C-alpha cells in the first residue's frame, strides 16, 4: 500500500492576541522570518492571519488587517513560490492579499462574513477553504449544542460548497474545514475527529486544525498552556489523516512533518 502525501499548513499569526502565539510575530519582519523557518521545517502551505478568531476575540478593522498581513504576504512571496493562504472573514482583505501573492482564502465564516464574499471568491479564482463555525468568535463558545455534530457540520459545509459553486467558484478550488473549537465543546471536537469520514465523503479535500487547542487539555488536564499540547496536537493530526484529512493546519511544523513521515513509512513498509 502506498500512502497519500498529507500537506502541512504552517500558521503565521500577525496578531497581538492569538490564543497560542499572539504577539510573537506581530512585527512584519518577525512574521516573515517565522514563515521562512516553517518552510525550512517542511511546511507545504503558509496561512497568514491578521485577526484573531479565538473565543471572545474582538473584531479588527479591515484597514488594520490589511496593514498587518499584506506586507508579510508580499515579503514571503519574494522568497518563496509555494502556496500562501490568507486567513480572513473579509473579502476586502482577501482581495488585497491575493493581489500581494496569496493563492488561497481561508474563511472561518465559510463565505458568509459579507454579502460580497461569494462573488469576491469567484472573482479571485483562488482556492477557498470553507469552515464551519457556530455563532461568531465573541460568542461561539457560549454553550454550543448539536443533536449530531458530525452530520450537522457535514450538511452545513455541503450547503456552503454548493453556494460557492453556484456563485462561480470552481469545485476543484474548494476545501472544507470542520472548525474544531469554533462553537464546539471538547466532546464535539473529538466526535468530529472520529467521524471525519462523513466530511471526507463529500468529495472535497478536508483541512483539519486542532493544533494546541483546549480539547487537548480536556483529555490531559495538566496541559494548561498551549505550548504543553504538542503530544496531543500530533496524536490528533495523525488520527485525522488516518481518517482522511488531506491538510493539517499546525503551529509545530517540524514535529508534525516528522510524525507524518513515520506514519507514511509504516504504511509503505512491506
What share of residues are in beta strands? 5-15%
The tally of strands reads: 8
H and E string: EHEHEHEHEHEHHEHHEH
Mean pLDDT: 92
Give a description of the structure.
- By secondary structure, the chain is α/β, with parallel strands linked by helices.
- The chain has one domain (7-268): Alpha-Beta Barrel (TIM Barrel), CATH 3.20.20.20.
- 43% of the residues lie in helices and 13% in strands.
- It contains ten helices and eight strands.
- The chain has an eight-stranded parallel β-sheet with strand order 6-5-4-3-2-1-8-7.
- The N and C termini lie close together (8 Å).
Question: Tags for this entry?
Answer:
270 residues; eight-stranded parallel sheet; 10 helices; 8 strands; TIM Barrel; alpha/beta; globular
Amino acid at each position: 500500500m502506498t500512502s497519500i502525501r498529507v500537506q502541512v499548513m504552517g500558521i503565521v499569526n500577525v496578531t497581538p492576541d492569538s490564543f497560542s502565539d499572539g504577539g510573537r510575530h506581530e512585527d512584519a519582519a518577525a512574521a516573515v522570518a517565522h514563515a521562512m523557518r516553517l518552510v525550512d521545517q517542511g511546511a507545504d502551505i503558509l496561512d497568514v492571519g491578521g485577526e484573531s478568531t479565538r473565543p471572545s476575540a474582538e473584531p479588527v478593522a479591515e484597514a488594520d488587517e490589511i496593514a498587518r498581513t499584506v506586507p508579510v504576504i508580499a515579503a514571503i512571496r519574494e522568497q518563496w513560490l509555494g502556496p500562501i493562504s490568507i486567513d480572513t472573514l473579509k473579502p476586502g482583505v482577501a482581495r488585497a492579499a491575493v493581489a500581494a501573492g496569496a493563492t488561497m482564502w481561508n474563511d472561518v465564516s465559510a463565505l458568509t462574513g459579507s454579502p460580497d464574499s461569494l462573488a469576491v471568491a469567484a472573482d479571485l479564482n483562488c482556492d477557498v477553504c470553507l469552515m464551519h463555525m457556530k455563532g461568531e468568535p465573541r460568542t461561539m463558545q457560549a454553550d454550543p449544542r448539536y443533536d449530531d455534530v458530525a452530520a450537522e457540520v457535514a450538511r452545513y459545509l455541503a450547503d456552503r460548497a454548493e453556494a460557492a459553486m453556484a456563485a462561480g467558484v470552481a469545485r476543484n478550488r474548494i476545501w472544507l474545514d470542520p472548525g474544531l473549537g469554533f462553537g464546539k465543546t471538547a466532546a464535539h471536537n473529538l466526535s468530529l475527529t472520529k467521524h471525519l469520514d462523513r466530511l471526507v465523503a463529500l468529495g472535497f479535500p478536508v483541512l483539519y486544525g486542532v493544533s494546541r487547542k483546549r480539547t487537548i487539555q480536556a483529555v490531559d488536564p495538566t496541559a494548561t498552556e498551549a505550548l504543553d499540547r504538542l503530544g496531543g496536537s500530533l496524536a490528533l493530526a495523525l488520527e485525522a489523516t488516518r481518517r482522511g484529512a488531506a491538510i493539517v493546519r499546525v503551529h509545530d511544523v517540524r514535529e508534525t512533518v516528522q510524525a507524518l513521515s513515520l506514519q507514511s513509512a509504516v504504511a509503505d513498509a512491506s
